[in-house]
Amino acid sequence: MAPTRRLAPDFYRQDTLTVARALLGMHLVRRIDGERRVGRIVETEAYLGPEDRAAHSWGGRTPRTEVMFGPPGRAYVYLIYGLWNCLNLVTAAEGTPHAVLLRALEPIRALPGRTSGPGLLCRAMDIDRRLNGAELSGPDLWIERPVRPAPVRIGRSARIGVDYAGDWARRPWRFFDRDSPFVSGRRSASGRR
DNA sequence: GGCACGATTGCT
DNA sequence: GCAATCGTGCCT
Fold it and tell me: What value does the mean pLDDT of chain A take?
């Protein structure tokens, strides 16, 4: 029997910046009513709370951030601007509230609408807070290695939309596939491709 | 209990 | 440039 391509919890337990880079090129899979929606991850951001001023877990544990303090390999989904859901993957050791935000997908299979940008990604994948805390080893949502992984030319830049975070906003903790047209495009903040 | 604001997006 | 829209966290 072929080894599973699904990433195991140990993958997410690694250093968060390592995970954020390694996720590029992986496939995000969502199962809905027996159908599989698949997207190739082309853009991520690392959040290293509680020290990281830009992270939701900055300053400590709250009901919202609770899942990030738990074991790695779970989904952290939050609602932003009352309109959009954003999907994060909990990383690093239990008790370390780190996460990686998924910002863009290249459509592979059964993805309706646009997938560039964290809110649009979740809409296309039908991801909302019902999946907050879900284990990525479960039946609804996971990440797997593609059958034929292609090398990725990785670009990096400051994270988007966190200008309030002072020095932390300048950390180059956004990673993306330099060759993908599906990377979200916020002209100035995104830096060069 | 009230209130300001956000790891966004799309329209003016 | 700014409205949409509501959960969260802090305060008043």
Answer: 95
Q: Are A7 and A143 in contact (CB under 8 A)?
A: yes
Separation between the CA of A62 and the C1’ of C12 (whole angstroms): 22
Q: Does CATH place domain A9-177 in 3.40.50.300?
A: no
How confident is residue A59, by pLDDT bands cut at 50, 70 and 90?
Answer: confident
Residue A82 CA and nucleotide C3 C1' are separated, in Å, by 13
CA→C1' distance for A52 and B4 (Å): 22
Instruction: Please answer whether residues A74 and A61 qualify as being in contact, where contact means their C-beta atoms are separated by less than 8 angstroms.
Output: no
Please state whether beta strands A27-32 and A141-144 pair in parallel, antiparallel, or not at all (unpaired).
antiparallel
Q: Return residues with beta carbons within 7 A of strand B.
A: A 45, 47, 49, 54-57, 76, 79-84, 86, 88, 99, 101, 114, 117-121, 159-162, 164, 184
Whether the beta carbon of A188 falls within 7 A of nucleic chain C: the reply is no
Sequence ranges of the domains in chain A: 9-177
Task: Report yes or no: A150 and A110 within 8 Å, Cβ to Cβ.
Answer: no
In A50-148, DSSP assigns E strands to: 75-80, 84-91, 98-109, 141-144
Strand C and A108 CB separated by under 7 Å: no
CB A146: neighbour CB atoms within 10 A? 13
